[in-house]
TrEMBL record:
Gene Ontology biological-process entries: lipid metabolic process
Residues spanning the signal sequence: none
InterPro entries reported for this sequence: GP_PDE_dom, PLC-like_Pdiesterase_TIM-brl
Organism: Lichtheimia ornata
Protein name in UniProt: GP-PDE domain-containing protein
GP-PDE domain boundaries: 11-254
GO MF annotation, one: phosphoric diester hydrolase activity
UniProt-listed Gene3D superfamilies: Phosphatidylinositol (PI) phosphodiesterase
Length: 302
């Protein structure tokens, strides 16, 4: 007799800035290694340079991660950023967004049904959305249907929402934020994916948020998860995607561990999640969640 296979929704393994736990963040090697190590999806940040190029970069400045300095919006790609490399070994050039789009159109990536969350921080000018739209239309016009399945437009602020909807009507939208209240108020109807920090989802309110989102047909992602016990808790919470730096660890504990489990084995595995049963851990995440809530109001205004 064969055992019943568990009806389990295995969460997507989303490579945070690529395989950033092993390679320089937001670089081609980081994205390529994430694909090679069977991530479900990529995540990366974009910024616009003075001369209008869109590059892969988390920070507003070049100082932390590259051999250059200066605010990205005040320096040129051509003749400056194009000659820089990462501080983290192995030194890598700074890629443009169109390089990553080309990677997403590679046949093996398409065949794996991979997608990418394009993280557009709230401190970008809204005009970056127009620049992304114009780039895709100009250089990838023949692939727009494919890219609409592959690229998820990630925004932090409601001020970006209408422009995103107008420019990318066929693309999925992801709200990335710190506050569950902001997610409910502004994005529960508009966004396809709600990406929230682990601390925001770790309590009873967070669990109810996941259930409510699922009832509305929305998917929920959480970040940045690098601890194995937190990965186990993500499974217990029932999130749809987990964003983290260490792709191989995530694949092992979020996917391979569950493959082939029976219904009873899966239920037993989930009930053994005790990470949040410790009072000190719960208090830590409670305080962190409150801090993020007020930070969201202070810095983003919502």
């Amino acid at each position: 007799m064969t055992k019943d296979k568990a009806v389990v929704t295995i969460p997507d393994v989303v490579a945070h800035r690529g395989y950033s736990g092993q390679y320089p963040e937001n670089t081609m090697i980081s994205y390529e290694k994430a694909i090679e190590n069977n991530a479900s999806a990529l995540e990366g940040d974009i910024r616009m340079t003075k001369d209008g190029e869109i590059i892969m970069m988390h920070d507003m400045t070049l100082n932390r991660t590259t051999t250059g300095t200066g605010n990205i919006g005040q320096v040129n790609w051509h003749g400056y950023i194009d000659g820089l490399v990462t501080k983290t070994d192995p030194p890598q050039p700074i890629p443009r967004f169109k390089d990553v789009v080309q990677l997403m159109l590679r046949r093996d990536v398409i065949d794996k049904n991979m997608y990418m969350i394009v993280d557009i921080k709230f401190d970008n000018p809204i005009a970056i959305l127009n620049a992304v739209h114009d780039l895709l239309k100009a250089e990838f016009a023949d692939h727009m249907k494919t890219l609409a399945r592959q690229l998820v437009i990630g925004i932090w602020h409601v001020d970006f929402l209408k422009t995103t909807q107008d420019l990318f009507p066929d693309f999925k939208i992801c709200f990335i934020g710190l506050s569950l209240d902001a997610a409910r108020k502004y994005f529960f109807d508009a966004a396809d994916l709600l990406s929230m920090p682990f601390a925001a989802l770790a309590d009873k309110e967070g669990h109810e948020f996941i259930q409510e989102a699922h009832a509305r047909g929305k998917r929920v992602a959480t970040w940045t998860v690098n601890d194995v016990e937190q990965m186990h808790e993500c499974l217990a919470m029932g999130v749809d995607a987990v964003v983290g730096d260490h792709v191989q660890v995530m694949v092992k504990h979020l996917r391979e561990t569950l493959e082939g489990l029976s219904v009873d084995e899966y239920a037993d595995y989930i009930t053994k999640s005790t990470y949040l049963s410790h009072r000190r851990t719960r208090v830590y995440f409670y305080l962190l969640k409150k801090a993020m809530h007020y930070a969201s109001r202070g810095y983003i205004g919502m």
